[in-house]
């Protein structure tokens, strides 16, 4: 009902008021109703409609001109720049020796890791050492740990998830530890369930331990026949007794 029109208004959500939009450029399209309109990017497209006498078949673009006042902002390079500092000798002020290989780092790591903060600011012998020897962690695993500390991101292939989980626990990096837990849970199967369960117990990962235990109980027969279950029995027979008691 009513008359076909060709006026164009905008609603300001902050003031809840309508106001007319003044068109510039080409001649405004004819009046119509029952048309289709869609906003995409900084334009509104109108197609077809009915002017009261004829069915219309035109296609019109209203360009809002928002880009006239905008500027292109390049994507942030912060993560890439921080990643480039991993094991970069330039401007490094601390050297770790891991598997007899130097790993260059920066004392700003103290802000990301309480383990390193205690080591480098707590009056320990490492505070004055030119090189700090780290034990019980492999070189590629430590580099992955550093990448996470610098960038808050880290690619975790399945084949290093367990070792990185153990390193995250060793150095007190709880969020990385949880990320590794999630990676391992996503890949749990009857062959590795006992290994993950044992690691969760050793490193006090309560949630991971509980979920692994539930998986073992739900798949008891194939898991107990696996090589990893046999190895767990040789290492910690108490875990085997716990599983048998809860079955």
From TrEMBL:
One of its GO terms (cellular component) is Golgi apparatus. Residues 92-158 form the BTB domain. It comes from Florenciella parvula. SUPFAM superfamilies: Kelch motif, POZ domain. This is BTB domain-containing protein. Keywords: Kelch repeat, Repeat. It comes from the Eukaryota. CDD domains: BACK. Transmembrane segments: none annotated. Gene3D superfamilies: 1.25.40.420, Kelch-type beta propeller, Potassium Channel Kv1.1, Chain A.
